[in-house]
Amino acid sequence: MFGGKKIMQSSLKKSLYLGLAALSFGAVATVSTTASAKSYATAGAYTALKTDATTRNVEATGTNALYTKPGTVKGAKVVASKATMAELATSKKSANYFRAYGVKTTNRGSVYYRVVTMDGKYRGYVYGGNSDTAFAGGIKLANTLTDATMPVNKTVYLTNTNKNTLWTSPKYTQYKASKVNLQNTTSTDAWTVLAAKTKTREGSLYYYVQNATTPTIKGWIYAGGTSTNSTAATAYNSVTIKYQAADGSTVSTASWVNPKATTANAGQAVADTDVNSSNAKLADFVKSAAPTGYVASSINNDLTGVKYGTTVVINVNKQATSTLSFFDTTNSNGITGGTAMTAANFVGGVYPAVTASAQQAALQGDSTVAFNTDNLATMFKGVAFNSADKTSTTDVKASDGTTIKAGTVYHEVYELDTTSTKAANTNAKYGDNIKVGLKVTSIVAGSATNTSVSDPTNSNYAK
């Protein structure tokens, strides 16, 4: 009897132990499964914003990235990183403002706004706080224009609508701002200034003008494209310029007007000191007034002895922009014997930074004219060509005389190889891809400082 009781107690204890062990294992398994599953938010239905579009101009704050979906939803991919959004936040270009046009709210109460930059380059969802009626988080309201002082003289004339024309809003201050149709206006029309504003980021001054003859025609124009002097062309104060394409068709016309000319100038040659209301000489005006996308040729010869009241035909050709390919010519048979470098060959994985104005000066030109490789030296003046990190497999002698031990990081410094570059582009014209030779001039221990552009393709000039 007593022995049977002990056996029963022993069995009971074992059962309890096994039960507790199984329960503990199940609990651990449950906790483990829960901890390993990543939790994603779910987004509600998309809602288009209905308020006045001009009240939905926003700018990045730099605190949140831009995603293909609300950022906490499964499958969301980065469109613009937090760093890129920070750059857009401090940008001095109106093109980098955003327009908000839609919204989604997650099950966690987070609001994500659908936005697009004014130039259309970036589009996606950005965290906007916890309210779908106010912008917060990664974006905030933006005033793309700032009130400016009205001019004393409110009657102006448009100097050259090929270069500066009317817009529904100054370019990129509103999404999809467009040019105003000036079909029923003339170069002699007077315009009344109704408002003045500056682009908040660029600081450039714009006038809102109305045509004095046809008041329904109105729009915004860069103040530098207006003049208070009448641009009415007469036989004694003007020269008409007709820009003619290679096939003989007229691309556009423009009038250079000297406001100080009198009837005595009729039939007289334009003096080298004569200027228009913008203080531009005839030759300078002809070059600047060339239609967009074209380049005027043989300007000085075409204008020799030009008289007031006449028409001058200026031949123009399509303007073309060349791109560049880089080659390391140090240990190869020149450019033709090498393989084109990529962005990955340079520090930071990006091509060397070059300003837009420097690129335009060196790479844009008449598509029928031979490319001038000498301009590349000016374009790359002061530009650092540093290689990406390299790791030495053996001891390497640095340019300062020290030894870079095997397994140590170092980088190379390049400079433009003008001789191989000129030889490789003998028959190249503007618009062609230009092969640029680079040669190693020094070897330096450690990594190079990255001062290059953020765009790894630098599509402005490198391909």
TrEMBL record:
Signal peptide start and end residues: 1-29
Keyword Signal part of the UniProt annotation: yes
Alphabetized UniProt keyword annotations: Signal
Protein name listed in UniProt: Surface layer protein a
